[in-house]
Amino acid sequence: MKYMHEYRQADTIKQLADKIADVTSQPWTIMEVCGGQTNAIVKFGLQQFLPSHIELVHGPGCPVCVTPVDIIDNAIDIAARPNVIFCSFGDMLRVPGSAKDLQSVKAEGGDIRIVYSPMDALKLAQKHPDKEVVFLAIGFETTAPANAMAAYQARAKGINNFSLLTSQFLVPPAIEAMCQSPQSRIQGFLAAGHVCTIMGYESYPQLAEKYGVPIVVTGFEPLDILQGIFLCVQQLEQGRSEVENQYSRVVSQQGNVPAQQMITEVFECQSQSWRGIGHIPHSGLRLRETFRPFDAGQKFGLPDRISSANSTDDTTGCISGEIMQGLKKPCDCIHFAKQCRPESPIGAPMVSSEGACAAYYRYATFNESVAFNKRATAQTSEKTAKRRDQ
């Protein structure tokens, strides 16, 4: 807690907020890519520390939120079969498929087990050689090394009753897709620090230059996030579009090279559908041909998920795709905190603790009202000052 407290000191945060206000002369819209950052922003009410004309919008940075419906349906199909032990992180059990979720399959008698790493699932496969053990391998680049290692170890040890149902996403192509969108109003990005811990940030300068957007690699504590915003606003005010590393205590430019090598050995790039957003070229990972025997989709003869060009929640009225592209906020959804709640989610962002909807439901009632009142007061003061000047 000592080291966490350093990045939550109120006096330091207020000083940094004042510095942001000092350098801000016009409206800016900044996206935090990571759901962990979204959770911290809403939990600590960071929007209220910012000038009224800086808006933070929320990105697609939660793998639970963007795992498409067809992969959930494939998971449900496998988990319901006899002689299968289906392993998953706990928050995936309530993500809605097209008809039901994994929690329903568990209630109906499916052998679904919550694990904390793919290696836990691999140990279960060793312990139960008469069962097929499947791990739902979701995540961004952060989880890819561990998932790759599980497949690598399974092949090395000849554990042939183990397989992965993969839902691995890559962040830079998603940032590029949002930059290319004609609806986008994003002027700068806070990049996910933990993703860059693995992959570094050598792929970001070309995005910053190509699309004219500052990208700041940012951590997850309140002070980290405000420093990231300060660096981003400073660039915007100066007309620069570069990559800066706020999270230098953890992230290096080249990243974790051995982890990258493990990813490259086991996985290859593929196009991928993102739930609520759609098809993004070169934004996913799948097992290479040499590791294909450990691909659960192939082992169980399931449909090819790559063919799913658009995976949205339109039939339910869920606007999660627009939220994760920074076009809307959770409170704009007609279902938010009504039909859609953590115990009965309509969309995936209400399931995960890092989903924007879950964060707003948990924290935003107070913090957002404070931020709204502060912005309204500031706008009234500005109008009064203008009338006085006239």
From TrEMBL:
Metal-binding is among the record's keywords: yes
Classification via Gene3D superfamilies: 6.10.20.100, HypD, alpha/beta domain 1
Protein family according to the UniProt entry: Belongs to the HypD family.
Keywords, in A-Z order: Iron, Metal-binding
GO molecular function, one term: 4 iron, 4 sulfur cluster binding
Protein name, entry field: Hydrogenase maturation factor
Family annotation (NCBIfam families): hypD (TIGR00075)
GO terms under biological process: protein maturation
Keyword Metal-binding recorded: yes
Pfam families for the chain: HypD (PF01924)
InterPro entries listed in its UniProt record: Hyd_form_HypD, HypD_1, HypD_2_sf
